[in-house]
From TrEMBL:
Residues 48-108 form the Partial AB-hydrolase lipase domain. One of its GO terms (molecular function) is lipase activity. InterPro entries: AB_hydrolase_fold, AB_hydrolase_lipase, Lipase_euk. The gene is LOC104594406. It comes from Nelumbo nucifera. Belongs to the AB hydrolase superfamily. Lipase family. This is Lipase. Residues 1-23 form the signal peptide. The active site is at S182, D358, H391. Keywords: Hydrolase, Lipid degradation, Lipid metabolism, Signal. One of its GO terms (biological process) is lipid metabolic process. It comes from the Eukaryota.
Length: 415
């Protein structure tokens, strides 16, 4: 089962990486590369992933209003440049779901965005969402308490991002550039639509943007969403699904869920494995092995349900309690409030980069997002399209600097 688990995680995370004649083959059978490195657990991200490359790195923590203690890594300078952090502009990197900030550091320094930004004159801050390995602290709850996991990405919008922006601003005295990937784009767009963070923001680059999810064509992702919601309903009635508060991709409950998904008619995980992960655009197989040492990471089951609701519903709303009375109790209305993407102020400098092979950030969903932004100031919205790129390429591709990062960095210098 461990093999199936890894394979399905790869499919979920790399979904949309269609086979083709690509630069490098991903050999998924390199079991040796999947062996955990015991020393990883004993060091923070700075020690294990940044300092080893010769960069200065500081560990910081920020506490949210609802008590979560989040870790942040700061790379205040590049390897060679002699300037000081005072001259540098802070940039905040926000990862997606089921991973943590380590995702920005997996490739060689000249290929990984965090290092490229540090060497490019930025003061780099790496966020780690609540519930991930280095952000599991809380002022009064333990991560063993169900109450610890009572959140979805709504709370990232409400608490985590504001606390992080305020902290970085307080430390640097400057407005912040933002780079989000996947869920990291969703929470930024949702915040901007409510006019949050704007007083502390310079501009934002959104890689593989996720807002509308109604078109996700990836069969496994859709099926996972369906089975997932069904499983959770069963759990509510029979308490069948244990460990349900924490969605731990390495845990038993998720294992059970994956079995259910893989048994569905029309879904053959072994075939999908081959077809989705056989050959990826531009991933280094060593990086993928490295990825599996650090990721995947936990999130709240409630967050996975929220994302699944978006795949099924096709709209961007707050978490749906699935019952009128409960929604009224939480929101004062029978349906969850909508995040209105047309409400994003038209003068925020936004850089969007999306991929033609990305089945989680689907081209049709991107069109829906761009339609919401149709009145955005022309000189404040740049859209980049990478035909060959899929979801993970935006953070892990070997050639991402040339293909993607150089132009949002130029955009940051302009805005
Ligand atoms: C792939 O990653 C390994 C390990 O970091 C590195 O030695 C190798 O140079 C990388 N290959 C390319 C083409 O970047
Ligand atoms: C969304 O915002 C736009 C622009 O502010 C407004 O015209 C539109 O009515 C809003 N839509 C909803 C559903 O609130």
């Amino acid at each position: 089962m461990a093999t199936v688990l890894r394979l399905v995680l790869l499919v979920i995370i790399f979904c949309g990486s269609a086979p083709g004649a690509r630069t490098q083959e991903l050999d998924v059978n390199q079991e040796a590369g999947l062996a955990p490195l015991p020393q990883v657990a004993n060091y923070g991200i700075c020690k294990s992933m940044v300092e080893i490359h010769g960069y200065v790195c500081q560990e910081h923590t920020v506490t949210t209003e609802d008590g979560y203690i989040l870790s942040l890594q700061r790379i205040p300078a590049g390897r060679s440049s002699g300037d000081t952090p005072q001259e540098r502009r802070p940039v905040l990197l926000q990862h997606g779901v089921l991973v943590d900030g380590a995702i920005w550091l997996l490739n060689l320094p000249h290929q990984s965005l965090a290092f490229i930004l540090a060497d490019g004159g930025f003061d780099v801050w790496i966020a780690n969402s609540r519930g991930t390995k280095w952000s599991r602290g809380h002022t009064s709850l333990s991560s063993d308490d169900p109450a610890y996991w009572d959140w979805s990405w709504d709370q990232f919008v409400e608490y985590d991002l504001p606390a992080t922006f305020q902290y970085v601003h307080h430390q640097t005295g400057k407005k912040i550039y933002y780079v989000g990937h996947s869920q990291g784009t969703l929470i930024a767009l949702a915040s901007f639509s409510q006019e949050k963070l704007l007083n502390l923001l310079k501009s934002a680059a959104l890689l593989s943007p996720i807002a509308y999810l109604g078109q996700v064509p990836c069969p496994l992702a859709r099926s996972a969403a369906e089975v997932f919601i069904a499983e959770v309903n069963i759990q509510i009635i029979t308490n069948f699904w244990l460990g349900v508060d924490e969605f731990d991709p390495k845990g038993k409950a998720v294992d059970k869920l994956l079995k259910a998904i893989c048994n569905k008619p029309g879904i053959n995980c072994y075939n999908l494995f081959t077809s989705f992960t056989g050959k990826n655009c531009c991933l280094n197989s060593s990086t993928v092995d490295f990825f599996l040492e650090y990721e995947p990471q936990s999130t709240a089951t409630k967050n996975m349900i929220h994302l699944a609701q978006m795949i099924r519903g096709g709209s961007i709303t707050m978490y749906d309690y699935g019952d009128k009375d409960k929604n009224v109790k939480h929101y004062g209305q029978p349906t969850p409030p909508v995040y209105n993407m047309s409400g994003i102020p038209s003068d925020i400098p936004l850089y969007l980069s999306y991929g033609g092979k990305d089945k989680l950030s689907d081209v049709n969903d991107i069109q829906a997002l761009l339609y919401s932004l149709k009145d955005h100031d022309r000189d404040k919205l740049v859209v980049q399209y990478q035909e060959d790129y899929a979801h993970a390429d935006f953070v892990m591709a070997m050639n991402a600097k040339q293909m993607v990062y150089d132009s949002p960095m130029a955009f940051f210098r302009l805005h």
